[in-house]
Design brief:
InterPro entries: FHA_dom (IPR000253), SMAD_FHA_dom_sf (IPR008984)
CATH topology: Tumour Suppressor Smad4
Organism: Coprococcus aceti
Protein name: FHA domain-containing protein
Number of strands: 10
Domain FHA: 44-95
Pfam families: FHA (PF00498)
């Protein structure tokens, strides 16, 4: 146990995210305050169903499998594939449709299904 580093703040967690990876940060809603590292090549599946998703969210507007997200450290872009009924709200209020794939830059805020579920892609 003596080798375990204590992490006391969100900033410390961000400091431990690998340089060649990104992070999903819960800004508002079910995941507020949560930080998840997104390593290059990993796919994060977001939704309500623990059988098909590795990032679980709750809420009336969250689909069983809402979206798939990956990060490309070469470009600094996130790729998001919408698999939902209610879409992903992008900057400017654009709402994705089921099956649509979009790329967004690090630093982008997205909302999952509703404005009350906000994530920052860092």
């Amino acid at each position: 146990m003596e080798n375990v580093k204590k992490i006391n703040s969100r900033q410390q967690v961000l400091n431990h995210v690998p340089q060649d990876g990104g992070a999903i940060i819960g800004v508002r809603g079910y995941l507020v305050g949560v930080i998840i590292a997104v390593n290059y090549g990993n796919i994060i599946t977001i939704g309500r169903d623990p059988a098909t998703c590795n990032l679980i969210m709750e809420g009336d507007f969250i689909s069983r499998t809402h979206c798939r997200l990956s990060y490309n450290n070469g470009t600094g872009l996130y790729t998001i594939e919408d698999r939902s009924t209610n879409g992903i709200i992008l900057p400017g209020g654009q709402i994705t449709k089921k099956g649509q794939v979009v790329s967004v830059a690090g630093g982008t805020h997205i909302c999952i299904g509703t404005y009350s579920e906000e994530l920052l892609l860092r």
